[in-house]
């Protein structure tokens, strides 16, 4: 025999401390039984007489007052809405009625749900699968047979009393939603007058009275049974009343707590409203500040753009001026080199001329004594020769013009007009370029000394300063005197 582990009471997922284990397990079994059924929906229109069905509840808790029942179809009335629809059958279990669960409920709850429905009602029906033996069907069949026998006995007693003057009426209007085993009816009992002298009664009357007494005993037993049922229902109602009172007290307590919470929440809401108002004010101020800053930013951006445009224009002009100055410097440098070459060439020619003059002067000194008479004429010739040499030198080395400083003046004016202070690199470039131009201008203004070699046969040097590259005429005169 196999042994398997099961769940304990603590591990049971449907465990409920307020319900006894038997009722809890019965509800669990009812729900498990629903899982084995074929479920399908049915829509039935309720008329004035109801749905045309009677229901019965099967489960546990009828004696204890805590019912856990499954609701089943007991009978179907002829020409009723259920029979006209044709989909509902005997022994079907009603799972839901308009979304209300009907599994594990009490008979009063099921009856109340069915009575409250109106118009077209949606049922969820559970039916056992084909081939299965329906134990519920057997129990319902036995209940129906018992009810029929019970009613047959009562009807037989009622028919026996139809010939008597004293009648007793029973109205057993069974409700369509009744789930008990006994019928509920309205009973009207008539009491009979008995004569004071028993001798005046005939045997036939005595027999009739005995029969009436038996019928009254049966009625009394039925009444006692119904009284017990009513007491049980009264007890259930009292329990429900106590439960409802407890729930009412709980609801009142919950309402008071909710009111207190609502008061607190309203206070929080007022504080939140004030806080939101303050935040909106701060936000408005921040937006105004942002708009002002945005205007300033746009203005500064526009000024920066203008300054950048002016800087680009200035850089363009600066580059053009720098290029012009570099071109002028190159031209001046080439011109200076050319002039220096011409000066060296002319100095060489002058040196040759001086050598020739020296040889001529030596010859003149040798014949000085012999030709003293022609001395004056030779001086004149020497003076003329020196004048001719000075004229040739002036023609060979023309007067040099001063360098043009207009570019430097223009550059200074542009730097003054510029509003931005020059950067360190640009300032160094301008200073270096200005120093270079000043040095070139100073060099051009300083006269180049004319170096002459010593006159042969004379102790005086022939070198001296000359203005603007022209030879001094007194030098030649002093040579003549020597």
Automatic annotation (TrEMBL):
Residues 41-129 form the PDZ domain. Residues 206-247, 276-363 form a coiled coil. It is found in: Cytoplasm, Cytoskeleton; Synapse. Residues 414-482 are annotated as: Disordered. One of its GO terms (cellular component) is dendrite. GO terms for molecular function: actin filament binding. This is Neurabin-1. Keywords: Actin-binding, Coiled coil, Cytoplasm, Cytoskeleton, Developmental protein, Differentiation, Neurogenesis, Phosphoprotein, Synapse. PROSITE patterns: PDZ. The lineage of its organism: Eukaryota, Metazoa, Chordata, Craniata, Vertebrata. Residues 465-482 have a biased composition (Basic and acidic residues). InterPro entries: Neurabin-1/2_PDZ, Neurabin-like, PDZ, PDZ_sf. One of its GO terms (biological process) is neuron projection development.
